[in-house]
Design brief:
7-stranded mixed sheet, 159 residues, two-stranded antiparallel sheet, alpha/beta
Length: 159
């Protein structure tokens, strides 16, 4: 499978994704799945600026991603699919017909109403339920901020 990482990170494309994960995995493409960013050329340009020119950046809404997922998986190059929130990833996994087998929670940061689960993961009860729903759809969920970090199973941070 050429998509090596399905990641939830509310900062979307940033150094930890591009350098930390992208270089470690040797990725050639990053797909950012976000309906709002897909509709905003300005935001897309901002995110493209943080990615080396040899790495392709694709922007897709959730419905579009459902149609393109098989092609990204079949792509011989290595890639990352990234969402900024739990609900978008849940929707993506739900429409993947079992193709997404693992989801990485990489960074869901503090905001009002969220409770600290790990130093880089803060979740509302609804977000925790969304991660549980992803496991119910057949995908393993774990948290890991960087490739050299410890992989933490959902059972240890999701409840």
């Amino acid at each position: 499978m050429s998509v090596d990482l399905y990641r939830i990170d509310d900062r979307l494309i940033h150094g930890q994704v591009v350098v930390g994960w992208g270089q470690a995995l040797g990725v050639a493409f990053i797909v950012l799945v976000d309906d709002d960013v897909r509709a905003s050329e300005w935001e897309q340009e901002l995110y493209r600026m943080g990615v080396p020119p040899e790495v392709e950046v694709v922007f897709a809404g959730v419905d579009e991603a459902h149609h393109e997922l098989a092609g990204w998986i079949a792509d011989p190059r290595r890639g990352i699919i990234l969402t900024g929130d739990v609900e978008t990833m849940r929707r993506l996994v739900a429409g993947s017909a079992g193709a997404i087998r693992h989801v990485n929670v990489g960074g869901v940061h503090y905001r009002e109403g969220r409770k600290e689960r790990l130093r880089y993961v803060y979740l509302t009860e609804d977000e925790a339920a969304g991660l549980a729903a992803i496991t119910g759809l057949g995908a393993e969920v774990s948290a890991q901020d960087v490739p050299t970090g410890t992989k933490v199973p959902l059972a240890e941070f999701g409840s």
